Amino acid sequence: MNEERNAASKELLERLNAKTTEICRGDYSGLEELYPYIRENKGEVGEFAENFVLMATKLEAREFDLGRKISELREKNDALTLLEKQRKEASVVFFLLLTIISMFTFIIEILRVVNPDKGFVKFIVFRGIDLLFLFTGVFFIFFTRLKISEFGITLKNWKKSLSESISVTAVLILLMLGIKYWAVQKGWMDGSKGLVNFGILDWTFAAYLVVATLQEFLARGVCLTSIERNISGRYAAPAVIILSALVFGLPHMTFSVSFAAWSLAGGVIWGILYMRHRTILGVSISHYLVGTMAFLCGFLG
Predict the structure, then answer these.
(1) Which among 188, 212, 249, 254 could disulfide-bond with 264, CB atoms 3.0 to 4.6 Å apart, if both were Cys?
(2) What is the pLDDT of residue 9?
(3) How far apart are CA 150 and CA 279, in angstroms?
(4) Contact between 217 and 274 (Cβ < 8 Å)
(5) Structure-derived torsion over alpha carbons of residues 190, 195, 201, 207, reported in degrees to the nearest 10
(6) What is the pLDDT of residue 37?
(7) With a cut of 70, which residues of the chain have pLDDT below it?
(8) How many other β-carbons are positioned within 10 Å of the β-carbon of residue 292?
(9) Which pLDDT belongs to residue 18?
(10) Does the pTM exceed 0.70?
(11) What is the 3-state secondary structure (H, E, C) of the chain?
């Protein structure tokens, strides 16, 4: 009888030793396998084994709770890291926008004072400003370390973007033609050269396609995206669209109030289209066509 008890106790101790090794490795499974051996050993060995199982169960629960708390701390740390990154991005965005808009306004005022006779000089100056904006946008992309596709330079969804943008553009052009016809009938606009004056077309309109694409990359791809990354909440989407449209329209105030108003309205429409498809392809073509038609109809210029 004693030999059987000794053999059972020895087997139980061997299993406890094996389970201790497994627990040290983080494996708490199989504790229930010890219960039959505990029932067979009613003495000190059985009591020791029962306490061992209870201790292992509590240790597993504590490790689980500790793991959960560590996971929560990591999530909070990631949130704080993201918040700090967004704060830095917001600071850089504010600084860049303030700098380039101030420089743009300053240069425009210089041109007004100097008033160069040759339109070619103004064209070169404005393209220089566009390059300055481009450099600013590229700098911001490198600063954020995001993929360039995050800023609309992608062909993803290009078919939907193009078809929807063309449809919206057609509606806008028809609306402009209707307004021009009504204004001519009222005597508010000159209609001697027709609703659309194709006679003013020159090489600058071809270059405008590049300019429109560049402006969409900066206004929608860079500006809208950077503002969106730093605004959250229920009305974040409309706020982002309006803010980016204001940033787009503000520099045009140096030309005229009507120019800025047209730019603001276009900025809202193109902002909506961009947020739907996340590519500048469609909005760039729409920007070019609408802008060109606005000049040919005499609304801008």
Answers:
(1) 249
(2) 65
(3) 9
(4) no
(5) 110
(6) 61
(7) 1-13, 16, 28, 30-46, 48-49, 86, 90, 115-123, 301
(8) 18
(9) 75
(10) no
(11) CHHHHHHHHHHHHHHHHHHHHHHHCCCCCCHHHHHHHHHHCCCHHHHHHHHHHHHHHHHHHHHHHHHHHHHHHHHHHHHHHHHHHHHHHHHHHHHHHHHHHHHHHHHHHHHHHHCCCCHHHHHHHHHHHHHHHHHHHHHHHHHHCCCHHHHCCCCCCHHHHHHHHHHHHHHHHHHHHHHHHHHHHHCCCCCCCCCCCHHHCCHHHHHHHHHHHHHHHHHHHHHHHHHHCCCCCCCHHHHHHHHHHHHHHHHHHHCCHHHHHHHHHHHHHHHHHHHHHCCHHHHHHHHHHHHHHHHHHCCCC
Q: Are 293 and 196 in contact (CB under 8 A)?
A: yes
Contact 221, 152 (CB under 8 A): yes
In angstroms, the CA 146 to CA 137 distance is 12
In total, the chain counts a number of residues equal to 301
Q: Using only C-alpha atoms, what is the Rg of the chain?
A: 35
pLDDT value, residue 117: 58
Locate 142 and state its tokens.
């490198």
| Residue 114: both structure tokens together | 């100097």
Q: With contact defined as beta carbons under 8 Å apart, do 203 and 127 qualify? A: no
The confidence score (pLDDT) of residue 118 equals: 58
Q: Specify the pLDDT at position 120.
A: 65
